[in-house]
């Protein structure tokens, strides 16, 4: 079934359907036959406004993996054997913490699919996961990198039973045409034409315990890939709801905890408890917004570092320098200098500079 010209959090944009088919088409296969088998109208190959049902898209992903005998969908110079993700998840289920699980998963993929190399590092209060595609082949690997990140984020969130809140995402590829669709996938700062593909999130998540077991893993794997690749929708966690509500206000005008609780129609005790259950706090949400503002202007080169310090609510530039180094491992000046040597596209609209809309 196809949804025409209707942007819905429950449907899949045509750009993702075409992206997953690129390797299949590149190997000389007929995409129309496969689309028809999966109940997706072949018109989606040409019409940018058409969308597919999640169930049909999930069926397409499974069919591609089976026909190509490759969980990388023919988008890498080396094949990833079907069942690799499930084997990786089983190898990680006894890990003590998310950091242990990530390191085990990266070693696993280095053995079974060495064309894609993951690395984990900690820089200040940030954890950074990079993906280096060493055998990309002749096709664009944009869809593959996006899919690897999405699978990693959702598997990690499931493993610790906490929403993993991203700080930013960097891509080597050019800015995609349908940029709005990516705000649903990655609700954070996104930059393109970067030297490496990476996701950045709070290092505190790394020490969170793995709370799943073999029984819940079997249930999780029974829904793969539907629970990994088809939920292209807004993040509905309370953390994300609050961050979206506050994303258009100046940092020095953010509401108090009591005010945001009132706007969310709950008591302060309930709000604090629910945020804690997601592994976050209101202070951490505000810090995340503060980082977004700082990084946005450091990338744009439109303000001095002292002006950015003032804009992000720091009374003294020296305090901003210390906080930024704690976040990223670098001072604002060093971070800006490092990024200025690379071509950058900032996709997001200007964050946290307008009036807040809380209603």
From TrEMBL:
Top-level taxon of the source organism: Bacteria
Region Disordered, annotated ranges: 335-359
Pfam families noted in UniProt: Arabinose_bd, HTH_18
InterPro entries assigned to the protein according to its UniProt record, in alphabetical order: AraC-type_N, Homeodomain-like_sf, HTH_AraC, Tscrpt_reg_AraC-type_HTH
GO MF term list: DNA-binding transcription factor activity; transcription cis-regulatory region binding
GO cellular component, one term: cytosol
Domain HTH araC/xylS-type: 236-338
Name of the protein this chain belongs to: Transcriptional activator NphR
Organism: Parendozoicomonas haliclonae
């Amino acid at each position: 079934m196809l949804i025409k010209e209707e942007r819905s959090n429950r449907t899949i944009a045509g750009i993702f359907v075409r992206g997953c088919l690129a390797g299949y088409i590149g190997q000389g296969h007929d995409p129309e036959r496969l689309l028809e088998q999966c109940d997706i109208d072949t018109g989606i190959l040409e019409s940018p406004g058409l969308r597919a049902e999640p169930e049909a898209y999930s069926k397409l992903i499974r069919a591609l993996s089976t026909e190509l005998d490759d969980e990388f969908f023919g988008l890498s110079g080396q094949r990833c054997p079907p069942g690799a993700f499930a084997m990786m998840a089983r190898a990680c289920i006894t890990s003590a913490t998310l950091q242990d699980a990530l390191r085990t998963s990266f070693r696993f993929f280095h053995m079974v699919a060495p064309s894609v190399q993951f690395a984990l590092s900690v820089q200040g209060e940030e954890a950074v996961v990079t993906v280096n595609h060493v055998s990309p082949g002749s096709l664009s690997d944009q869809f593959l990198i996006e899919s690897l990140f999405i699978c990693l984020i959702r598997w990690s969130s499931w493993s610790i039973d906490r929403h993993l809140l991203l700080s930013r995402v960097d891509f080597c590829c050019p800015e995609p045409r349908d940029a709005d669709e990516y705000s649903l996938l990655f609700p954070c700062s996104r930059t393109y034409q970067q030297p490496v593909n990476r996701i950045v999130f709070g290092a505190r998540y790394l020490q969170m315990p793995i709370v799943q077991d073999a029984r819940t893993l079997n249930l999780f794997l029974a829904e793969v890939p539907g629970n990994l690749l088809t939920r292209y929708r807004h993040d509905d966690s309370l953390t994300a709801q609050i961050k979206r509500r506050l994303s258009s206000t100046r940092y020095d005008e953010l509401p108090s905890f009591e005010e945001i609780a009132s706007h969310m129609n709950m008591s302060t005790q309930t709000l604090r408890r629910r945020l804690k259950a997601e592994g976050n706090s209101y202070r951490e949400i505000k810090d995340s917004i503060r980082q977004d503002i700082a990084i946005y202007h450091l990338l744009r080169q439109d303000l001095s570092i002292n002006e950015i310090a003032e804009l992000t609510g720091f009374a003294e530039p020296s305090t901003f320098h210390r906080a930024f180094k704690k976040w990223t491992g670098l001072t604002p000046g060093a971070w800006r200098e490092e990024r200025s040597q690379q071509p950058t596209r900032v996709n997001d609209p200007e964050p946290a500079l307008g009036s807040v809309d809380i209603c």
